[in-house]
Amino acid sequence: MGQVSEASEPLRAPERLNDSHHLDAFASGAPTLDAWLKRKAHANQVSGASRTYVLCRGTAVVGFYALAAGSIQHEHLPRKLKQNMPDPIPVIVLGRLAIDATEQGHGLGRAMLRDALLRITAAADEVGIAAVLVHALNDRARDFYLSCGFSEIAIDPMTLIARIADIKAALGGN
């Protein structure tokens, strides 16, 4: 029997990036995201600046997202988001999310977003997190996040936010 290529291997559940993952072939079509994964993700993980989760076939990364802690000032938010909240409001920043071009169009972006939101809501049960903030790279990414329940904020139409309470409701209370 011949050797099984990574392309034919099943997808593994998202897991935290580690040294066994192969990043070199990852190409999402967004050079800035590809470069960040290959050049910055490991260093940011080691320093504690962010956590990167990867979707793999074998050890080849075919998708990823990164999470970091952050905050946003009241002045940038609608009343619904700032009511009864400290200033600034604690958020998790979904800093990056990309799928390899060979895997796009099969719902993996939504699946990775769901995985990220499940991790974030679990963390929100333990520490104070009021919302998830994303900075969309382009109009296509902005439209994706809008279709997933995020809302634009006044300071920048490419910056979107979703309340943890709304995310939990959309996920069925998880």
Structure description:
This protein is of the alpha+beta class and 174 residues long. It is built from six helices and seven strands; from the N terminus they run E-H-H-E-E-H-E-H-E-H-E-E-H. The protein has helices at residues 31-39, 41-47, 79-82, 108-124, 139-147, 164-170, and strands spanning 15-16, 51-57, 60-72, 89-99, 131-135, 151-153, 156-163. The protein has a seven-stranded mixed β-sheet with strand order 1-2-3-4-5-7-6, with helices on both faces. The longest helix is centred in the middle third of the chain and has 17 residues, at 108-124. The radius of gyration is 17 Å and the shape is globular. Mean pLDDT is 92; it is low at 1-5.
Question: In a few lines, what is going on in this structure?
Answer:
With 174 residues, the chain is of the alpha+beta class. Helix content is 30%, strand content 28%.
What's the SSE blueprint?
Layout: E1 15-16, H1 31-39, H2 41-47, E2 51-57, E3 60-72, H3 79-82, E4 89-99, H4 108-124, E5 131-135, H5 139-147, E6 151-153, E7 156-163, H6 164-170
Parallel strand pairs: 4-5
Antiparallel strand pairs: 1-2, 2-3, 3-4, 5-7, 6-7
